[in-house]
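batch_manifest entry 22 of 60
target: Peptide chain release factor 1
source organism: Hymenobacter glacialis
requested by: lab member K.T.
priority: normal
notes from requester: please return tokens only, no post-processing; we will run our own comparison against the previous entry in this batch. if the run fails, retry once and flag.
--- input ---
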Amino acid sequence: MLPPASAFLPEITFQTSRSSGPGGQNVNKVESRVELRWHLQDSQVLTEAQKGLILEKVANQLTAEGLLLITAQDDRSQLRNKEIALARFHELLLKSLRRPKPRKATKPSKGAVRKRLESKKKDGEKKANRRRVE
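--- output ---
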């Protein structure tokens, strides 16, 4: 079970910068882009097993130092972008810790096999009837 996003707040650092894209004068003046930084291995909230699972799933998203970076520049407000980044972070952790349901091998029913073979035979006869008669 994953703790709420607020439990990770002491471990998370935020860095702000000027956002790119449209926005007029607001873009040039306000640092509304938010970058969430979290060090996976230093986390006190997660167990070692949980860290291992997350590391498997997000290994390609970590920096060389082991930091997970999530950026948000969707909104004009810095506070709203922080909320968006935290929501993305929590969703990423939830998705990483979710174990896939194991697949159970199944066989087609006898009726389905018979139906398929009859259909193949019918199609083969149809194509055989298209040939020239000698």
